[in-house]
Design brief:
Blueprint lengths: L5 E10 L2 E7 L9 E2 L1 E4 L6 H13 L2 E14 L8 E13 L9 E7 L8 H18 L1
Parallel strand pairs: 1-6
Antiparallel strand pairs: 1-2, 1-4, 2-3, 2-7, 5-6
Length: 139
Amino acid sequence: MAGKFMVAGNAIIEKDGKVLITRRNPKRWLGNVWEFVSGRIEQGEDLVTGLKREVREEVSLEIEPLFPIYTTHFYRGEKKAENEVIMVTYVCRYVSGEITLKTDEQVEFRWASPSELTQYESLMKYFAEEINEYGKLKR
């Protein structure tokens, strides 16, 4: 029998040779973790449209998702069906906008060079495979 799960998009946003990372609000699940902008895709929404919406909502940027580079499966918190997530990571191109953080979600941002990504311990803890795949593209 097929189960239910959430689908999320994850955006590795490139601008001027750097990548956007954000730090989660400490009051949220996985608080203070550095991450890429991501979010849940809504029912009936395609991945690209949902990812663009999430980026617009969370950091006020317009992006162009170029191609997916990684898909992962995890549980958001306790290992229960309602917490199951499939997340697809896209390489994205910055199009326009100035960053305005949705502070109930993120409290800080940085534009990091691809080689700097490995210096963020929490980013590597949760996104090592995505960073590895992205690094292959930059070699």
